[in-house]
Amino acid sequence: MQATPRVAFLTDTFDKINGVALTSRELQAYAGRQNLPFLCVCAGEADERAEFGSVTHLILKRGALSFGLDHGLLHDPVLWRHIQMLRKEIDLFRPNVIHVVSPGDVSELGAFLARLLKLPLVISWHTNLHEFGARRLQKMLASLPDGMNRALCDASEDLILAARLFS
Q1: Buried/exposed code over 76-99 (b: 16+ C-beta within 10 A; e: otherwise)
Q2: Cα separation of 8 and 130, whole Å?
Q3: Cα dihedral angle (163, 110, 119, 8), rounded to 10 degrees?
Q4: CB under 8 Å to 21, separation ≥6 — which residues?
Q5: Which has the higher per-residue pLDDT, 88 or 128?
Q6: 12, 16, 38, 90: least buried by Cβ within 10 Å?
Q7: pLDDT tens digits for 72-108?
Q8: Are 153 and 138 in contact (CB under 8 A)?
């Protein structure tokens, strides 16, 4: 008989209205209904830890330096201040795998800990990061001539994609 996998799931959005948040909530609910060991880590307004049967839900407080990336999506560049506490939580939970959802702040912590602890890492992308980044840059460089803007955005899209494929 196979052992039940212990999944540490780190998501950059949980309580917002978007596809990643909905998927994150559904995964946590499924784990709870099936009595599967599941650690869900996200960021929010306050540090919180709660247990619901087989599910542990951990919220890391985002700080004053957080900034918006998109509607309802924040990034805290100093969320790393929680790394020791999160490491203890991961050690206590003893996951077989760490699952992250994007290159966001919470997922960065998960990817780092997976590598540090030599745990398998699962990444589920919900956005074509390279296209998203290029569109953001295009808006930021809107004052440049069209040809220069397009060339810079195309180059950034290629570089972002290459970085993601070979990291």
Answers
A1: beebeebeeebeebbeebebeebb
A2: 26
A3: -140
A4: 11, 13, 14, 15, 72
A5: 88
A6: 16
A7: 678 899 999 999 999 999 999 999 999 998 778 999 9
A8: yes
Rounded percentage of the chain residues whose pLDDT exceeds 70:
91
Report d(CA 129, CA 66) in Å as an integer. 20
* Distance in angstroms (rounded) separating the CA atoms of residues 43 and 59: 5
Mean per-residue pLDDT for 21-38? 92
Tell me which residue of 60, 126, 66, 72 sits closest to 99, measured CA to CA. 126
Of the chain, the end-to-end C-alpha distance in Å amounts to 35
Residue 106 in contact with residue 60, Cβ under 8 Å? yes
Distance (Å, rounded) from C-alpha 30 to C-alpha 68? 29
Higher pLDDT, 66 or 131: 66
- In this structure, what is the dihedral angle of CA atoms 21, 79, 50, 31, given to the nearest 10 degrees? 40
